[in-house]
Write a structure and sequence with these properties.
alpha/beta, 6-stranded parallel β-sheet, 13 strands, globular
């Protein structure tokens, strides 16, 4: 069986990071490959900060305990050498040169990897402004020009690669390539609910969300980050989180993977955020830029149904292209 090395953020305190890693690994396994994740030496017990207060830190620790259990399914290796058919860099924000946790890890840009065929899949430079990347840290990304194939997941990363003198292929986040197991959480209230998946909202945004939920007769259930204002804050495992997404009546999110799974599971959702290039790029791909909300428009947006017949057609077309790219690039 051919071995594939994977370089990505597989062990973060984040549902999206775990699920993108799980999806890529599962897709490759289903296609007959043995997968190993190149070890990332980051201790998230130290990364989790208490600067928001004890309750927030405790919530994050409980969530990370759940995620650590999920991560036990991954095979981890200390090095990827010539015995590997290929090394895949991505998905996620592996090329964010301003993330202090990862900016100096050489594997993310293809360095110190021993196999000959190194590619990227759905890599992203993250949230930093394009001008800031190029002026201050763009030189750090120069080694990606030596990759055999480059595939990215958003507009900004596509532009960065082009400026560096290379062409890239646009692909879907790997979570679109795989049908996940879904697990119902224990002791879950049997009431209609609005799911909140966010890194945090201000007072005006919270008031707007609560107002919509009240008018719709929905509980507000928060996951991902502690939201003391929500009716319920719940700490779950990754596949239980997917159940919460799939069974929500409405979803409000400000994150990339919150938007991804809302689309994947055909949910009525709104993106309430101060602005996110990677989310905007994702919504544009599926003709869903009208799901971006403000405190004034969130009610009307959540009241407007999405035509998922058209969206699902786009998903299937892009899914086939993404799968074909990945499997052909691996075999070079």
């Amino acid at each position: 069986m051919k071995k594939i090395g994977i370089v990505t953020v597989y062990n973060a305190c984040n549902y999206g990071s775990f699920l993108q890693a799980y999806a890529l690994r599962s897709f490759l396994t289903d296609n007959g490959y043995k997968t190993d994740f190149l070890k990332i030496d980051v201790d998230y017990n130290n990364v989790i900060s208490a600067n928001e207060g004890k309750a927030y830190a405790q919530y994050e620790k409980e969530k990370y305990q759940k995620l650590t259990e999920d991560q036990k399914c991954f095979d981890i290796t200390e090095r990827v050498d010539e015995t590997y058919q290929c090394c895949v860099i991505g998905s996620d924000t592996v090329w964010n040169m301003f993330d202090p946790t990862y900016e100096n890890i050489p594997y993310f840009i293809g360095k110190e990897i021993g196999c000959k065929n190194i590619i990227s899949y759905a890599a992203s430079v993250g949230q930093s402004r394009l001008s800031k990347i190029l002026i201050l840290k763009g030189y750090k990304l120069l080694p990606i020009r030596k990759l055999s194939h480059i595939a990215v997941r958003d507009d900004k990363t596509e532009k960065v690669v082009k400026i560096l003198g290379k062409q890239s292929v646009r692909v879907l986040d790997p979570t679109f390539l795989y049908d996940f197991p879904i697990v119902k959480p224990n002791d879950f209230p049997q009431k209609p609910y609005m799911l909140i998946y966010t890194y945090g909202y201000n007072k005006e945004e919270v008031a707007a969300i609560k107002n919509v939920a009240k008018k719709k007769g929905l509980l507000t259930i928060a996951t991902g980050s502690l939201c003391p204002w929500a009716d319920i804050n719940i700490v779950v495992g990754s596949f239980e989180w997917l159940w919460l997404v799939k069974n929500a009546d409405l979803i409000v999110t400000g994150t990339f993977h919150g938007s991804v799974f809302s689309i994947k599971y055909n949910k009525q959702f709104a993106v309430l955020t101060q602005g996110s290039d990677k989310v905007d790029s994702l919504l544009s791909e599926f003709g869903l830029t009208d799901r971006t909300a403000t405190v004034e428009t969130i009610g009307s947006i959540l009241g407007k149904d999405i035509d998922y017949a058209q969206v699902n057609k786009i998903i299937e077309e892009k899914k086939v292209r993404s799968q074909n790219y990945l499997l052909s690039a691996i075999e070079v």
